[in-house]
UniProtKB/TrEMBL annotation:
This is Lipase domain-containing protein. It is a peripheral membrane protein. Keywords: Calcium, Cell membrane, Disulfide bond, Glycoprotein, Hydrolase, Lipid degradation, Lipid metabolism, Membrane, Metal-binding, Secreted, Signal. One of its GO terms (molecular function) is phospholipase activity. It comes from Gopherus agassizii. GO terms for cellular component: extracellular space; plasma membrane. GO terms for biological process: lipid catabolic process; phosphatidic acid biosynthetic process. It catalyses: 1-hexadecanoyl-2-(9Z-octadecenoyl)-sn-glycero-3-phosphate + H2O = 2-(9Z-octadecenoyl)-sn-glycero-3-phosphate + hexadecanoate + H(+). The active site is at S155, D179, H249.
Length: 452
């Protein structure tokens, strides 16, 4: 793939130095280490609420802070081609400890993951898993339970977590895979990668399936952010430097961390494909009743009992995000019935305004919508703000044509209904005429009976 090709060319040109800190810290290496390669060495750093600002290095001598009667989360990073520490470690520790009194073990295998030869790092994954089994065996001997062990694996770390789970016959409490690595793992049988049998509950976030991530479903539930490919706010060209290669891949981590802040919930919808989701074919949450559709991230295990009983126990869910934290979008269905005699094809820009004058905008242009006389077109729209009470709506229609006459879209009925909050009143407007590329603003009214 072109993105992967440019990724390795970029690595050959990059220079970056490691850093050292006062407390035990993640191993910082430089590009020179990547050039020569590093032998595998695993370091375990423990954080708890008693030492959340300064890690304790776990060793055979025992631990001052590890309490095996509590939940233990092991966080396993992935390939580190330049040797630098992951930028998300401290944020992950802080947020996890803020929501639960637990043990957090950062699994530092930077020596072994730092190399320009990706296959060399990949070949170390099962060795890291064997090392972690020794740790977990000791915890079990000291009174821990497998139910309380939760592994969060990023990229190659997701497959390491799967290998550990296999060693315990799927009895680990939970595994979360954050954009599991694709290269050298795509197409592999279940025993050679993460899969749903590796833990009692396996959830996966995909954010770079056309680059560094794994394309197919790997868990009981697989969340595909923006279809799992290009993430909003990430660079689209190689001239953006390192962010072009890692932004999409890393987005899975930041989406997970955002779920811990609970500023908003990212809801995902079950669907066969992202195309069907964007074409409004999968806006129903009836399959999960009496619960709502699943939410992404740390609290996804609330749907465990439903998801693990499915046959087969695999659910793919899709969602869109905004381009910045906390990444949430509030979704609506826009239902339109037109009375044009001729079929109209084009895109819509819809704006919502609340009583205070705040405005949110959504451009519906995933595919050119088709408006046919007396047939309802249902379009999905996402807004980065939530307005409980909408005072004004504006619509603008475009065919994308820069020459020729302007077309009109004659709307018989327009309905706006919240998917995020389906209990809210539905808003309508009747008898509108949209002149192409001309915004029309109106006050919505409560809906009368309208076909669904």
């Amino acid at each position: 793939m072109p993105k992967l090709y440019f990724f390795f060319i970029y690595l050959m040109c990059r220079v970056r130095a490691g850093t050292e800190e006062g407390c035990p810290a993640f191993t910082g290496l430089s590009i020179s280490s990547a050039l020569t390669g590093t032998d595998l060495k695993v370091k375990l750093m423990l954080y708890t609420r008693q030492n959340q600002n300064c890690a304790e290095t776990l060793s055979s001598a025992g631990s001052r802070y590890l309490n095996v009667t509590k939940k233990t989360i092991l966080i396993v990073h992935g390939y580190r081609p330049t040797g630098s520490p992951p930028i998300w470690i401290q944020k992950a520790v802080h947020l996890l400890l803020s929501v639960e009194d637990i043990n957090i073990i950062i699994v530092d295998w930077n020596r072994g993951a730092t190399t320009l030869l990706y296959h060399r790092a990949s070949s170390n994954t099962k060795k890291v898993a064997e090392f972690l089994k020794t740790l977990i065996d000791q915890m079990l001997a000291d009174g821990a339970s497998l139910d309380s062990v939760y592994m969060i694996g990023i990229s190659l770390g997701a497959h390491i977590s799967g290998f550990v789970g296999q060693m315990y016959n799927g009895k680990l409490g939970r595994i979360t895979g954050l954009d599991p690595a694709g290269p050298l793992f795509n197409g592999k049988p279940p025993e050679e990668r993460l899969d749903p049998t590796d833990a009692q509950f396996v959830d996966v976030i995909h954010s770079d399936i056309d680059g560094l991530g794994y394309r197919e479903a790997l868990g009981h539930i697989d969340f595909y952010a923006n279809g799992g490919t290009d993430q909003p706010g990430c660079p689209q060209t190689i001239f953006s430097g390192s962010q072009y290669f890692k932004c999409d891949h890393q987005r899975s981590v930041f989406l997970f961390l955002s779920s811990l802040e609970e500023r908003c919930n990212i809801t995902a919808y079950p669907c066969d494909t992202y195309r069907d989701y964007r074409n409004s074919k999968c806006a129903s949450c009836e399959a999960f009743q009496p619960m709502a559709c699943p939410i992404l991230g740390y609290y996804a295990d609330k749907w465990k009992s439903y998801l693990t009983l499915k046959n087969p126990p695999v659910t793919k869910v899709f969602f869109d995000t905004s381009d910045k934290e906390p990444f949430c979008l509030y979704h609506y269905l826009v239902d339109i019935i037109t009375w044009n005699k001729n079929i109209r094809r084009g895109s819509l820009i819809i704006k919502l305004k609340d009583q205070a004058g705040n405005t949110a905008e959504s451009k519906i242009n995933h595919e050119v919508a088709t408006f046919q006389q007396f047939n309802q077109a249902s379009l999905i729209a996402g807004f980065d703000q939530d307005f409980e009470k909408i005072a004004r709506i504006s619509l603008a229609f475009s065919t994308g044509s820069v020459i020729g006459p302007k077309h009109k879209l004659r709307i018989l009925q327009m309905r706006l209904r919240s998917i995020t909050y389906p209990e809210r009143p539905q808003l309508c407007r009747y008898d509108l005429v949209l002149l192409e590329n001309t915004e029309i603003i109106f006050k919505p009214i409560p809906c009368q009976n309208m076909q669904t």
